[in-house]
């Protein structure tokens, strides 16, 4: 039974990490470069809409928090096994991702949403205060921590499969 739980925890960790790292990568290579090319009104309104939309069970539960919780579960259930070290490193990398998200990106997201209706504000000032270049740099760090964490969990699955065979 424990082997089934450890396998399921590792699969869930890998899937959720893949989901969340893909979101950060998508923002880095598509969303933010696309928004960068827009006028201030469009940038503020679009970013507000995107941030409101991403606060949903798929991203928060299945991806962002799921990756953390499932990776912790995978680490606990893999103690003493060949995959444990790779899962532990993935967990540390993802913990860095979570800290960056909470400390750097979320406050900016909350501030731009709190600015209110783009039709009733100085959108240029709100955009400057948001500091999209800084947000994008921190997001890139999230890509460089979460994508390797995903790769490490994939490798841990391989090792787990080999040790269970």
Please provide a written account of the structure:
By secondary structure, the protein is mainly alpha-helical. It has one domain (2-164). The protein is built from six helices and no strands. It has helices spanning 2-36, 40-54, 57-77, 84-114, 123-130, 132-164. The longest helix is centred in the first third of the chain and has 35 residues, at 2-36. The relative contact order is 0.19. The mean pLDDT is 96.
Oligomeric category = single chain
Alpha plus pi helix count: 6
The helix-strand sequence is: HHHHHH
The tally of strands reads 0
Overall pLDDT score: 96
- How far from one another are the termini? 16 Å
The portion of residues assigned to helices is: over 70%
How is this fold's topology laid out?
Elements: H1 2-36, H2 40-54, H3 57-77, H4 84-114, H5 123-130, H6 132-164
Briefly say what this structure is.
The chain crosses the membrane at residues 58-76, 83-104, 140-159. With 165 residues, the protein is mainly α.
């Amino acid at each position: 039974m424990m082997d089934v739980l450890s396998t399921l925890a590792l699969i869930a960790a890998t899937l959720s990490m893949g989901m969340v790292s893909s979101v950060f990568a998508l923002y880095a290579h598509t969303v933010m470069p696309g928004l960068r090319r827009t006028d201030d009104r469009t940038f503020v309104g679009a970013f507000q809409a995107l941030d409101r939309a991403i606060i949903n069970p798929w991203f928060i539960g299945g991806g962002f928090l799921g990756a953390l919780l499932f990776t912790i579960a995978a680490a606990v259930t893999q103690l003493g096994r060949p995959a444990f070290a790779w899962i532990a490193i993935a967990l540390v990398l993802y913990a860095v991702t979570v800290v960056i998200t909470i400390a750097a990106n979320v406050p900016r997201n909350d501030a731009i949403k709190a600015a209110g209706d783009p039709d009733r504000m100085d959108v240029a000032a709100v955009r400057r205060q948001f500091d999209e270049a800084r947000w994008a740099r921190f997001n890139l760090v999230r890509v460089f921590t979460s994508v390797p964490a995903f790769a490490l969990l994939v490798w841990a699955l391989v090792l787990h499969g080999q040790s269970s065979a």
